[in-house]
Amino acid sequence: MPVGDAAMLDELKRAAAFRAVESVDNGMVVGLGSGSTAAFAIEALAARIATGLSVLGIPTSEASANLARRLGVPLTAFDIHRRIDITIDGADEAEPHSFHLIKGRGGALLREKIVAAASDRMIVVVDETKIVNRLGAGGFLPVEVVPFGWQATFARLAAVGCRPRLRTADGQPFLTDGGHFIADCGVAEIEDVVVLEAKLAHIPGVVDTGLFLGLASMLVVGRKSGVEVLER
Ligand code: A5P
């Protein structure tokens, strides 16, 4: 992507992230998403904290925890708070009619899903390039798997129509914060996400998938024409 386009997309993400953070109220426990868009939301939250907002964050990755600490966002954890008021996170693809998502390009999908599922509201912030008519349009779906027997797990993923490739970093298998591998599955547009999710969930060794179904309650879309807010 040309540098100018990347800078423009960052502006769209930033504007949408700042809008999303307007939904946070004093005293809330806030789920902190992962990825470049969620980082803008953490920055926006820190800016509000600097002017008096009092909240506690539960991060979805070590990277987001580090960023939050650096920017002065106080953190809490599930041993103290079982429920989260609002989670603000990004996505790789979002369907505006169903609010279904694909997440996990950053490899934090498991913690992101645990935090989203424990949240009263999940606000998803995306730039307009992430909006799709049907999930799978981008051609990939991350699936988190346990390292033991991953080759057998991959064979089963292939048998349900996904084309798994082991994610690597510096020539080694990429390890998630939970110590798992990521299968980057090649997919076409997904006919029935509920059916695919059920098939994947039944494969031994699959920890979780990047399909986030029925979790998002608001989409905040950064568009060149302005920020669009969709609510379910
Ligand atoms: C992290 O695992 C992902 O789910 C991210 O939320 C997703 O990949 C979006 O990331 P960006 O905001 O960096 O595009």
Compact overview of the structure:
With 232 residues, the protein is an alpha/beta fold.
Q: How would you portray this structure in words?
A:
With 232 residues, the chain is of the alpha/beta class. Helix content is 31%, strand content 28%. It contains 6 helices and 15 strands. The protein has helices spanning 3-21, 36-50, 62-71, 109-117, 150-159, 193-201; strands spanning 29-32, 56-59, 84-89, 93-94, 101-102, 119-127, 140-145, 163-166, 168-169, 172-173, 181-186, 206-209, 211-212, 218-223, 226-231. A hairpin with a 6-residue loop joins β4 (93-94) and β5. α2 (36-50) packs parallel to α3 (62-71). The mean pLDDT is 97. It binds arabinose-5-phosphate. The site of arabinose-5-phosphate has 18 residues, from α2 and α4.
Keywords for this entry:
single chain, 232 residues, alpha/beta, six-stranded mixed beta sheet, four-stranded antiparallel beta sheet, globular, binds arabinose-5-phosphate
Principal-axes shape call = globular
Portion in beta strands = 25-35%
What order do the helices and strands follow?
Answer: HEHEHEEEHEEHEEEEHEEEE
Give the end-to-end Cα distance, rounded to a whole number of Å.
32 Å
Bound molecules: arabinose-5-phosphate
Largest sheet: 6 strands, mixed
Rounded to an integer in angstroms, the radius of gyration calculated over CA atoms is 17 Å
Spatial sequence of strands, sheet with the most strands: 2-1-3-6-14-15
Number of helices: 6
Low-confidence stretches: none
What is the total tally of β strands? Answer: 15
Residues in helices, as a percent range: 25-40%
Alpha-beta content class: alpha/beta
Mean pLDDT: 97
